Amino acid sequence: MRYVKWTLIALILLFVGGFFHYTLPQHDIVRIVNTYEERQDISGWTSIFWQGPDNGTATTQNRDVQFIQAVRPNGKSIVYRNEDTGWGWPPYFKFDTANLYTEANDAISTKATPEWVSVTHYGWRSQLLSIFPNAVGIKQVEGPDVTIIPWVNIIILTFLFLFVVTLYRIWQQFRERTIEPLVEDVEDVLELADEKKDSAVDKVKRWFKR
Fold it and tell me: Counting Cβ atoms within 10 Å, is residue 40 exposed (0-12), middle (13-18) or buried (19+)?
């Protein structure tokens, strides 16, 4: 039973951690090398990693999607999609896909004369599943060694931690004030019933011995 409990806890933590890792903003220092638009067939269960029609994208599952190609300081490539989030989830309220596409084109640079930018995005990149992180912002930086402090993530995770601690303390107080006394009362009732049963058995035994 202990293994089942800890397995369930591990799965819950893995799910929550994956949810926040996918949803919270991340910052990549990259050099943009190209932008392009390509028709994508968005179908199957991987469609959850793309924006839905209610978030400002085309209603069809086969639609044109804007992409931003970039290279990290270590030479590895990364490709971002550029889709509006609208009023949907995640709540980035992104409506400026066209403007971001223009900014990305303006930031294109070569290896000889690199221009480094910080791309704010959410989501994951998987070549196997053909999914891409969604770029939500581009900001020019001084160089490839710039450190971006994720203040939004720190604030959100701090509030989440305080919320979980508060819930845990409320549960502890509820258990101490309500559940534990109730359990003790039930145990007292069962103990009293057990004593009465033993007394009744003793009386029956004495009656048969007469």
Answer: middle
